[in-house]
């Protein structure tokens, strides 16, 4: 298993990117309070790990985030989404933070035709994992 841990100002605030070989997907787990700058760093690191692993599936787990998360939807649309697609991403299972405000779901609502991969939104990690397994069977 390949793993990269990105720690922010508070050591309990992290983004863990790990390639799960058994499941064949990349898991980005976010914990604690993540401001916009940290979110951009973490999401950029996820792209770097995608470049190494060539994983077609991403489980983006925000279930452990505290407070608002990443209101830079423009950056996601303009930078992250095109790069992720270019790296071969085909499926994202996005687990919502407990207090979901603006996040990647807004991208799907604003410009659904600009998302070049399948994106599903979940409240539970287990549901996201199940969906990714289904995607891999296709």
Describe the 3D structure.
This protein is of the alpha/beta class and 138 residues long. It has one domain: Transcription Regulator spoIIAA. It is 38% helix and 29% strand. Strands 1-2-3-4-5-6 form a six-stranded mixed beta sheet, sandwiched between helices. Helix 1 runs parallel beside helix 2. The longest helix is centred in the first third of the chain and has 18 residues, at 36-53. The relative contact order is 0.16. The model has no long low-confidence stretch (mean pLDDT 86).
Fold blueprint:
Elements: E1 2-7, E2 14-20, E3 25-32, H1 36-53, E4 57-65, H2 73-86, E5 91-95, H3 104-110, E6 118-122, H4 125-137
Tag the structure with descriptive keywords.
about 140 residues, Transcription Regulator spoIIAA, alpha/beta, 6 strands, STAS/SEC14 domain-containing protein, globular, single chain
Outline of this structure?
This is STAS/SEC14 domain-containing protein. With 138 residues, this protein is of the alpha/beta class.
């Amino acid at each position: 298993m390949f793993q990269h841990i990105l720690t922010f100002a508070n050591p309990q605030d992290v983004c863990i990117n790990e390639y799960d070989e058994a499941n064949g997907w990349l898991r980005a787990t976010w914990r604690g309070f993540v401001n916009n700058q940290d979110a951009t760093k973490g999401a950029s690191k996820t792209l770097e790990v995608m470049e190494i692993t060539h994983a077609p599936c991403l489980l983006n787990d925000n279930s452990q985030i505290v407070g608002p998360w990443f209101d830079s939807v423009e950056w996601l649309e303009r930078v992250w989404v095109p790069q992720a697609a270019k790296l071969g991403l085909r499926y994202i299972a996005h687990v919502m933070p407990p207090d979901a405000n603006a996040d990647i779901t807004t991208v799907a609502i604003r410009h659904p035709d600009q998302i070049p991969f399948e994106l599903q939104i979940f409240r539970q990690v287990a549901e996201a994992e199940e969906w990714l397994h289904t995607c891999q069977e296709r």
